[in-house]
Structures are given as C-alpha cells and as structure tokens.
Amino acid sequence: MSRNPTEPILCEINPQLVSSYKAVRLRALQDTPSAFGSTYARESQFSDEDWLQRSLNLCTPRSVGYLACNHGACCGIAAAFLAGRNPLEAHVVSVWVAPEHRKSGVARQLMDAIQTWAAHRGAHTLVLMVTSNNHTAIDFYQRNGFTMTGHTEPYPNDPALIEHEMSKPIPKLL
C-alpha cells in the first residue's frame, strides 16, 4: 500500500529529533498559549540539555511523543504517558497542529497513533485536559469519541480559565 504524498509522516520523538521537537513545541506555545500548561517564556529559556532530556522522556515504555512532518517541515505534535497510579489510563498532552495544516487530518492521525500506542501498552482509556476557551479542540475531541468527565481544574496560567477533563475508551486490539 503506498502512502499519500500529501499526508504527513509521523515520527516518534527521540534524541535525534530534538531540534525539530524544540522548534515545533516553541511554535505551538506561541501560536496557542492557553492550550498548554507551560509557556513560551519559560520553555524558550531551556538549555540544549533540557531539550535533550525532554526528548528522552518522550521515548520510554511508559511515554511517547509524535511529530507530524510534511515536506520536511514539522506541522504537528502530540504526546502521551501512562498514568502512574492507573496504568490503564493514557494521558494525552501537547496536542497541536500548525494553522496551515488544521482540518487536514493531521490531528486525527496524531490521535490515532497515540491510541494505538496506548492500546499496545494495555491502556483502556485516553484522558486529556482542554481549556474552556478552546472550542475548536473540544469539538475535535468530541467528534473523535471523547466525552466530558465532569472533572474540572483551574488553568494554571490564567485563573479565569477552566480546564475540562475529557476521556475516551480505547477499543481492544484484535
């Protein structure tokens, strides 16, 4: 089966991709600051060693990060980790797609990869937090099977915003 040449290629984040990871993460923080628990001001100060360690933290048996790349440029990112207290839950974090690639299937491709990764590790549920003002993301997650759990938390970078927890059951592997 051949790959559609317009479809992005997904790569697992690893130390060899640290510069691409850094670039897309910083772009995401600038583009959609209220979608992340961190800030551009904070992460732009990280050293090369910090970025290397972050990339290593995303390629373990309990965590994964993906970059979506199209024609050599990174256009999306998503990561997940198995919950420490409940390894049946995979927590999805850092989902972002470049504005010029939104509504093209990149986010769905990233989420499918996360779901497959989680299923292969025995997780039963995907869980994520989304800020109350990110209606586009909430709609996307709902279209892709996520529902609100009812759990909310104050958004750490702006107490005027609330984060909503959403979850989705992971189909069993055949």
| Helical/strand content category | alpha+beta
CATH architecture: 3-Layer(aba) Sandwich
Distance linking N and C termini? 21 Å
Tally of DSSP helical segments: 5
Q: Tell me the fraction of residues in β-strands, as a range.
A: 25-35%
Count the strands? 8
Largest sheet, in brief, is: 8 strands, mixed
What this model shows, in words?
By secondary structure, the chain is α+β, with helices and mostly antiparallel strands. Strands 1, 2, 3, 4, 5, 6, 7 and 8 form an eight-stranded mixed sheet that branches. It contains five helices and eight strands; from the N terminus they run βαααββββαβαββ. The longest helix is centred in the middle third of the chain and has 15 residues, at 106-120. The mean pLDDT is 93.
